[in-house]
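Notes on consecutive records. When two proteins share a document, each keeps its own sequence and its own token line. Never mix them. Below: protein one.
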Amino acid sequence: MRFSGPVRACALLGLAALVSACAPLQTSGAASGVDETEGTLRVWLFSEVDQAPKERVVAAAVEEFEAAHDGVEVEVQYIPVETRAERFQGAFLDPASAPDVAEYGNTDLAGYVESAGLADLTEDLADWEPRADISDDVAATARVDGADYGVPWFLGVRALYYRTDVLGDLGLEVPRTLQEVVETGRAVREDDPRMLGVSAGGAYTYAMMPFVWAHGGDIAEPDGDSYTATIDSAEAKEGLELYGQILSDDVCPPQTCSEMRGDASVQNFVAGSAAMTIGGNFNLNAVRASDIADDAAVVPLPGTEPGSIAPAFAGGNNLGVLAGTQRRTLSVEFVKLLAGKEYQLRMYEAMGNLPVFTDVRAELAASDDEIAPFVETIDAGTRFVPVTPSWATVDAEGILPAMVQRLAAGDASVDQAADEAARALDDAFGRG
């Protein structure tokens, strides 16, 4: 896919960062037992860099909902994503000041459930017809221990951006495998040492994960009511070894790339300093607006075999109902409306947010080739981080970036770095 056409606003907040919440609170989370059908329905949504288009879509949904519910007023408050941890903690402790409905990041879910802050909507969604068009792997991003705590509202996945002019001038084909991604990047840098072959950082966990998953590895596996690390498996190490080759002098020098996260990795590409990068659909706007737009294209990140697609992390936000709401029925109905197909499509048109419904995405891919590689990636199957409150500890301690950075610096072999990370993960999971 080459970039052309109008710039589409794209502000998927919270996808590039993992959980930043503090340790889960131990609250009762008990529902009030009251289910009022009138009054004010309070809604929290995340603020955006440019939220005017989002506000217009939400306002339309609010108008429709209020027209269908006499005596009901919907009050929407936009909260900063950076302070969500404190805001939600306060809401869980004091239901009287809490919203009825809230947008939340899918990596935050497990901690919120442990805090008993979200309502179990499994029965409420059981007969909701649109749910059949949400694939199991996507539905799992709103699920803990088999129970649904909301509806996925939008998705964000990553694919392979590349420079058509750079590869074309060198007679290089678009990579068909992850190994070819590395080899192509090496060939580019050999020709021009001023350019990064692949811009992907040591702290860019979401770029590293597909390499592990594509080789059959994983971060951890369920073990009773917790997880056990598997990042030290032979398959995971094979993926880590290949990703580690990117962080080398002949592709992306460690002194430049070791500390980079996703934003910096993509920015190198946008600035014209890299031949390739692993970026999200939420980076499309920046690429389209850049000086390289006419020479940029994107394809699904390939897997280990030609024609395969590496599993991508399914980032995104969900809509859920707070456990202490006194308007549960109204809350569920509003979630179904705003998270339904019509308004997910409107949010895509306004913000670039990828819908979670397979049929809606298929229509978009058929009509918009700029988004097609990301839809293909989702349809090929996505993956998620371990669904446990312990993931906040894993993120806060930087266990996975530290593993990759030690590997890139030559301070540890793949075996040593993965084994150390596995021990740290098990400690975080309470297995140490």
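Protein two starts on the next line and is unrelated to protein one.
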Amino acid sequence: MPGRTGWLVVGVTMAALAGMTPSAASAAQGEASGNGRPRWQACTGQDLPAGMECAAIEVPVDWARPAGRRIRLDLARLPATEPARRIGSVLGVPGGPGAKGIEDLKRAAGDLTELRRRFDLVAYNPRNTVWMDQLPQVCRRPGASLHEPRNRGQYEALSTTMAKAFTACANQDRSGLSAHLDSLSVARDMEAVRKALGEERLSFMANSYGGVPAAAYARLFPQRIRAMYLDGVINQTTGWPEQGLLALRRMEQVFGRFTRWCADTPACALHGEDAGAVWRELVRDADRAPIPVTSSQFGKAKLTGWHLRSFGFFPDPGKGNSRWLTFADAVDKGRRGDGSGFADFALGNARVWSMPGILAMTCGDERGYTGYARFQQARRQARKTSPNFGGAAFDALGCAGWPLRVANPSRPLPVGGLPPFLGVGSTWGDYAWTESFTAMIPGSVTVGYDGPGHVMYLSGKKCPIEHATRYLTTLRLPGPGTVCPAE
């Protein structure tokens, strides 16, 4: 469901379709030492920030069997530039899932120079990146043709097909990781990083899906958190359907922005018409008679209204409103029987979200429907909340056939002993998610960024970064209702 807002869909799709090769920095030279402490040495590779050091630690594949098979997690750090005034370390918690924290640190280093004065900036590549880098070929194959089931029979058939795909993937998994990619396992890895750093408590910067392991860490190790900065994070503790409804409400608001923009913009292909009505008619007609398309990447297929609702609209208008111009053009072509403007992105994401190797990184966090009754209820709520985009959630459909126990179910987060957290979110998109997280923790604040975007500190947004730096350094929070202007 969260992927409906565009950026999470893009992130996972690109990770899945771009070859899944390790980065230069993640091929770290540093080895894990015998006592568990990392051996830091200069990283090698291209486009690395000056002074970046690399190392590695080892952690169990299954934390319930600490003496069993182990995997290596690559680390990187940028040491504090004012060591005499050093406070400690800030650990980045990347999103995705499947994003590499070392790549995040490389990207953000130039914008975090003030924070680095007082902290070592530490990154790691989570266990799901280890999984992605050695993914068996069968795990990359779509397990089913994702669609919105019309009845119990179709739902159960989809679940059965996906369960077979998960089982086939697990049978080819030589790492053992496919059953241990849940965020509780990731949180225990984070604790291993803290111990390896020799820090009594850590400060954290979590982004996007990184909010799920951040919550898991807060659940397991609340006394080890000095401060927690959350940037555009999902709040899995309230349940994915609830987070999906928050996303849909915001999507409706942004779609209203689009229709007003189109009405005022002669260059919009739907200018002079009721753009919202044209979109809803296109979606309705595609559900009744799917649009035949030929994709350069995925061949011949048909686009249903579900494909369009799930993957058609970008809330971020893009530079010069380029994405909204493209969307309006695609809608105009679509109503004339030409679905080419939607084909590659919609079909690509529908494939990715039925790949068992991708889904294995999220299904253990209870991302799937728990049964047909829950599917019906969630779909009904989604349609009521969002006339333009409501329906079955593609991520929950993919996980519906998850054959293993859900290791990290959604449930309330105990907040006793936690310090106040700082959140940042785009008022166009992920603010509602982040605020739902910080609202659980007394004294916490979420700053709104009054513009589109996702993960502000990775986007170089100065105002959110200044708030994050001040909070992490001094533990002082901005006032409730603080808003950063669009940059």
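For the record: The radius of gyration is 22 Å.
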